[in-house]
Amino acid sequence: MPGSLVVCENDLQQNEGQMFVNCLIQICNDYFGEQIAISLPSYHGRDYRRRVSGDIHDKVHAQGETDFERILLQELHTSGRWSVFVYVGTDKTILKTGAREMCCRPSDYIVYLRNNVNSDLNNRLDVLKAFYFRNLKSRFVVVLDKTFNEPEKEVSKVFTKLWEFKIINVVVLLERTALDTSDMGAVSKVVRGNLDVGHFHKVIGVYTWFPYRDPQNCYDTRQIYLLDIWDMKGNGQFIQKNFLFPQKIKNDLNKCEIIVSTTENSPYVERPSYINSNGSLRNVYDRGWDMRLLHIIKTAVNVSVMFQPPSVGKQGQLLKNGTLTGIAADLTYSFSDVALTGMPLMLPFAVVGDYTAIYSRSEYIWLIPCARRLVDWKNIFQIFSSTLWICVLLSLFTAASVIYCLAKHKLFRWTPKIGRYDNLFGSSCNIWAVFLGAAASPVPGISAVRVFFLAWICYCLAVSTVFQSYFISFLVKPGMEKQVSSLDGILNSGMEYGFIPYFDVLFPVNESARYKNILSNRKNCACESCCLERLAYDRDFAMLFRLVQYEYAVKYEYIDPENSRLLICRTPEPFLVFYHCMYTPKGHHLRDRLNVIISRIFQAGLYRQIQKSDLHLFKLRLLVNVRGTLDSEYYQFSLEHLQVVFYIFLVGHGISLLVLLLEILCSNCKYFT
C-alpha cells in the first residue's frame, strides 16, 4: 500500500519532545522495517554536519539538529534495530552520497516540517521520489511543528500534497488537548467512548483520510477521520490500539474517476472518437483489444474513466531539454493513473512507471516477400531431381544394351526372328518407344528377349504412372521460388531491411555485436506503408514487424489481384518475444488491485478470446470478395495450368516429324532395310 503518513506537532520542550519521540518509536516498532529515511528542514545560520557511528548496520547522518531531532536520532541509534539515513532540506548531493551507503531502498520515511507545507513538502518529496520512493508498501511520518497556526488546515494540505504523489494511507498524529482532538474530524463512537482523559489534558490524535469513499467526495482531503489517541501520561500509549495504516483501496471504488493515458496503436487501441462535454470536445477510446480489457477492469473495480488528450509523442520521447512526452511523461509526472496501449514489458517504461501483471504475449517477426511461382519452363526441370533423371537415362541405356547382347548371343544367331534387336540402334529405339508408351515393332521372337522385354514393359508402366502423377500435381500446384525463412537468409540474400525507429529500444545492444550490426545497417521505416509497399511489390526489402499486427492488418491487405496470392510473408520463427502489461506511476495505489483483476482475466483466457474473435471477424470481412489464397484447400484447374502440357506436345510432335523426315531420307540405309 503506497505512502503511509504520520504527522506530529510538538512545542520542542524537552518533555513534550520526548513524548513525540516515544510516539514515533512506538510507530517504528509496530510498522517500520529495518531501513528508515529521515528528512529534516534547512536551518539558516546553523549548518554543520557530524557523523554518529555505531554498529556497521546502524548509520546516522545528521545536520542542524534541534532538541527534538537529537532525542529522536539518539533513540533510533541506541535501539540498534534500524539503519537510518538523515538528510537536510533538498540537497540532492547529500542524498546521492548517502544513497550509496544504503544496502537497499528504504520503505519507511519520517519528514519533519517547520513551515510552508506546500513548497517545502513538495520539494522534499520530489527529491525522495527521485532517489528512493519506489516501494508500494512505503509509509511516511511527517512531523508538524507547533509554529503552524491552523493545524487542521495544515494537515489537510499535507494530505493534498501527498495525494499528488499518490500517497494515500495518511495517518496524522497531532498534539492537542483532548477536547480539541475529539472536535477535529469524524470521530467513531468507540474512540470517543474510550476518551476518558480530561478535556484540557495533552493527547495526540491519530487522524487519517480515505479516498474513493463516495462518488461525490472521491478525493476530498478535507474529510479527516480520527483513528486513535496517544495518551501522553507516563511513557504514553495508544488508547484504542487500532491499526494505524488500514487498507484504503477497496474492491468497489464507487464510480470514482481514474485517468487513463493511451494512444492509437492498432489493434490494441483504435482511433478515438470525440464527444461534446460541457462545450468542449473530449476524446474517448472504446475500440481495440486493450480497450475491451479496460472495460472489464472498469466494471470489476466500478470506476469511471477519463482519457488524457492525445500526445504528439505517443508512447514517449525524450526531448533535448531533458523532458519527456507522451505516455512516458504521464507516468513520470503522475498525470494519469493507468497507461496502456499494447505496451511491452521493457526498461524504458519500467524505469518511469510500475508494471502490472502480464496479460498477453507479443512476437516480433521479419516480413519478407512471398516466393513467386516459377516460370513455366523452369517448372519442367523442377519436377524431379537431376539424380533421378540420370538414373532413368542409365536404365534406358542398360536395357538397350542387355537386349542387344541377348540378341547377338551365339545361341540365337541362326534364328530369323531376332529382327531389329541385333543392332544397338534398333534395340534403343524399341526400348525408348516402350518407355514413352508407344508400340514397338517387331515383337522379339525368341524367349530370352521376350522375357526381358516383358520385364521392361512392367518397369516402364510403374515409372510412367509415378511420373504422370507427379507431373499433373505439379501443374495444379506449380513450384515456387526458394523462400527466405530466417534473418540469416535475409542478410545473405543482400536485400535491404528496416523498421520504425521505435523498435531500436527492443534490441539489447549491450549483449550482442550482431544486434549492433543490425541497428547500424537498418533503414528508417517511419513511413510503414511505404516500406510495406516496397516489400510487397518491389520484392527487395525485409521489415521487422509485430506478429499480431501482421496477422490483423497486413497479411490480407497485400494480395495479388490476378491470382489472389499473398505478397507479404513472415519468417516461421519469432525474432524477438515480449510480454504486454499495463503501467502505473511509481508507487501508485491502484497497482495491487489491477494485478488481481488482470491475473484473473489472463487465467480465464478472456484476453486471448478477445483476440481470436476479432481476428476471425476481420478475416471474414476481408476475404468475402477474395477468390482464394495460398491457404485455400482447392485450386481451380484452368488453361494456365495446362500451358506447359501444350508446349511439351508441340515439342514432341516436332521431334516426331523430324524423325519421320530422317527415316525417309535414310530409307536406303542398311539400318532401316
From TrEMBL:
Q: Which residues form the Putative ionotropic receptor ligand binding domain?
A: 105-251
List the InterPro entries hit by this protein, alphabetically: Insect_Ionotropic_Sensory_Rcpt (IPR052192), Iontro_rcpt_C (IPR001320), LBD_receptor (IPR056198)
Q: Where is the major localization of this protein?
A: membrane
Q: Name one GO cellular component term.
A: plasma membrane
Q: What Pfam family is a match, any one?
A: LBD_receptor
Q: Which UniProt keywords apply?
A: Cell membrane, Glycoprotein, Membrane, Receptor, Transmembrane, Transmembrane helix
Source species, domain of life:
Eukaryota
Q: Where in the cell is it found?
A: Cell membrane
State the name under which the record lists this protein: Ionotropic glutamate receptor C-terminal domain-containing protein
Per the UniProt record, the source organism is Coptotermes formosanus (Formosan subterranean termite)
Q: What is the lineage of its organism?
A: Eukaryota, Metazoa, Ecdysozoa, Arthropoda, Hexapoda
